[in-house]
Design brief:
By secondary structure, the protein is α/β, with parallel strands linked by helices. It has 14 helices and 8 strands. The chain folds into 2 domains: about 50 residues; about 270 residues, TIM Barrel (Alpha-Beta Barrel), CATH 3.20.20.80. Strands 1-2-3-4-5-6-7-8 form an 8-stranded parallel β-barrel, surrounded by 4 helices.
Length: about 375
């Protein structure tokens, strides 16, 4: 090290010609040459490997961010909607009022669910704010779009009751430059009947009609299934029907579950309970797993807790390549900000759609501070 300091002093005190002579004289001492290059930035970087046996990185070099696929934004119009009520009146398991107050984190854990904390955070990509979309009634769509601003509203939630319903809104959505996230109820068919093949003709016809509409599509059968049938019938239906829908052009298929399964409150499900509805066999036919993550009406837990635990579950149990938030909303501005930050920070999430439908309860339309929180959230890929 004394030699290096002596050379450094000599180097600083001499003119350029002498400096060149000094550097040439030490070329056989690779580590010394690399030291001088790195500290005096005189030798070309292209010579460093030959001199020192390795690269010396530029001090101003920055790490690059991971790019993600995302849809382009554009004008938007048209969708159907479903009414949403507050948690206490939807038939969902009631939230416990004994846990921490609302916010982006929770210290609690669902009964029987191990390792249920937040997912490993990842660096937001430069397009993270392009993951967002919206649901709104057809007659109010233009108004709601104007209120939130069309920029970075790249996904549109569409609901159908039967496989044979018109796909006009799908065409309108794609033509407007958005990607539809579509779910069908099964009409007159029970889940068991769909699983047995009774609806195959209508499903195959649906595929043909979807093929006539070029563009990316996310397809779901019976979102939020809890309370509408048994887990075994739900899984059997999905295992039979999703591979049929998956043959549609540019289609991704999956499920949208009840978000409270991933609650940190007493209502939350354990991994084994979730596995009854989403076993490995179902993961194998899904391109994505989604859930609806609302703030509860007691303001105990906002949607960010459920979203974080959903991502943690996906990584812990494996077999999930992508996540989505089919619906989210909250009674407070911070609850909306928190869930958007979780989505932006985690590359597993591909889309999250605010339920801006109303008229009240969990889907109370965005206004005031809640509206501004959503606008701010989609304006930047970084946490807000």
């Amino acid at each position: 090290m004394k030699i290096l300091h002596w050379l450094q002093g000599l180097y600083n005190r001499t003119n350029k010609a002498v400096k060149i002579a000094v550097l040439v004289s030490v070329l056989s001492f690779g580590s010394v040459g690399a030291y001088l290059e790195h500290n005096f930035q005189f030798i070309s970087k292209s010579l460093v490997p030959a001199i020192g046996g390795g690269n010396i990185p530029d001090k101003t070099e920055q790490s690059t961010q991971i790019a993600e696929d995302s849809a382009t934004s554009g004008g938007k119009k048209g969708t159907t909607s479903e009414g949403k009520k507050s948690t206490s009146s939807t038939g969902k398991k009631p939230a416990s009022s004994s846990s921490s107050s609302s916010g982006g984190t929770s210290s609690g854990g669902s009964s029987g669910q191990s390792n249920g904390g937040s997912a490993t955070p990842t660096t937001p990509s430069s397009t993270a704010h392009e993951k967002f979309g919206m649901s709104a009634p057809t007659n109010l769509w233009n108004q709601r779009l104007s209120e939130v601003g069309a920029s970075n509203i790249n996904f549109r939630r569409i609901f159908y009751q039967e496989f044979g319903d018109s796909l006009t809104k799908v065409s309108e959505t794609i033509n407007a430059g958005m990607t539809p996230v579509i779910s069908w109820k099964t009409g007159s068919y029970s889940w068991a009947q769909v699983a047995a093949g009774a609806a195959d003709g209508e499903l195959q016809s649906l595929v043909s009609r979807l093929n006539a509409i070029p563009g990316k599509k996310y397809l779901v059968i019976h979102h939020e299934p809890a309370g509408d049938g048994t887990a075994s019938d739900f899984v059997a239906m999905q295992l039979h029907a999703l591979p049929i829908l998956g043959t549609a052009s540019q289609a991704s298929v999956g499920i949208i579950a009840n978000g409270w399964w991933w609650s940190a409150q007493n209502q939350g499900y354990s991994d084994s309970e979730i596995a009854q509805w989403i076993p490995s066999s179902l993961k194998n036919v899904c391109d994505f797993i989604g859930a609806d993550t609302y703030q509860d009406d007691q303001l105990v837990e906002d949607g960010s807790v459920k979203a974080s635990r959903l991502a943690a579950w996906a990584r812990r149990t494996g077999g999930v390549s992508a996540l989505g938030i089919g619906e989210f909303n909250g009674f407070t501005a911070s609850s909306i900000t928190n869930v958007m930050n979780v989505v932006k920070a985690d590359t597993l999430f591909k889309w999250a759609l605010v339920w801006n439908s109303g008229p009240s309860g969990l889907g109370t339309p965005l206004e005031g501070a809640r509206l501004q929180a959503f606008i701010n959230g989609k304006s930047t890929p970084n946490p807000t």
